[in-house]
Amino acid sequence: MTFCSTAWAATQPPRQAPTMSADDIELAESSLIVRIDPKYPSQAARDGLEGWVILSYNIDKHGSVYDIAVLDASPKGIFDREARRALAKWRYKPAVKGGKAQAVPGVMVLLEFNLSD
């Protein structure tokens, strides 16, 4: 059996997280409403490989994900494609500020790929 898990913060993030002002707090309240788990690459499963991918992305004012970039991964190049493919299907309830839907830039996520017994 294989599975993937999501962690919202890496223990050692690759970059300093941006600071937020009180005006930005409402923007932080976009919420994930559709989460697609990444598929475990079959070759990685056969080889017994586990790993993770840290991705950055933006959320548009409609709640769609765009500008997905791999910031780091271990092992490199093994899980990147499936992580990006799944993340592209995620959907958010848009953040609202002043009654208007807002885009949210610079979101990061850690997707872990683990084999279970």
TrEMBL record:
GO CC terms in record: outer membrane-bounded periplasmic space; plasma membrane
Superkingdom of source: Bacteria
Subcellular location: Cell inner membrane
Molecular function as annotated in GO: energy transducer activity
Matching Pfam families: TonB_C
GO biological-process terms attached to the record: protein transport; siderophore transport; transmembrane transport
UniProt keyword annotations, A-Z: Cell inner membrane, Cell membrane, Membrane, Protein transport, Signal-anchor, Transmembrane, Transmembrane helix, Transport
Family statement drawn from the similarity comment of this UniProt entry: Belongs to the TonB family.
Job of this protein: Interacts with outer membrane receptor proteins that carry out high-affinity binding and energy dependent uptake into the periplasmic space of specific substrates. It could act to transduce energy from the cytoplasmic membrane to specific energy-requiring processes in the outer membrane, resulting in the release into the periplasm of ligands bound by these outer membrane proteins.
Protein name: Protein TonB
Species this protein is from: Alteromonas alba
Lineage: Bacteria, Pseudomonadati, Pseudomonadota, Gammaproteobacteria, Alteromonadales
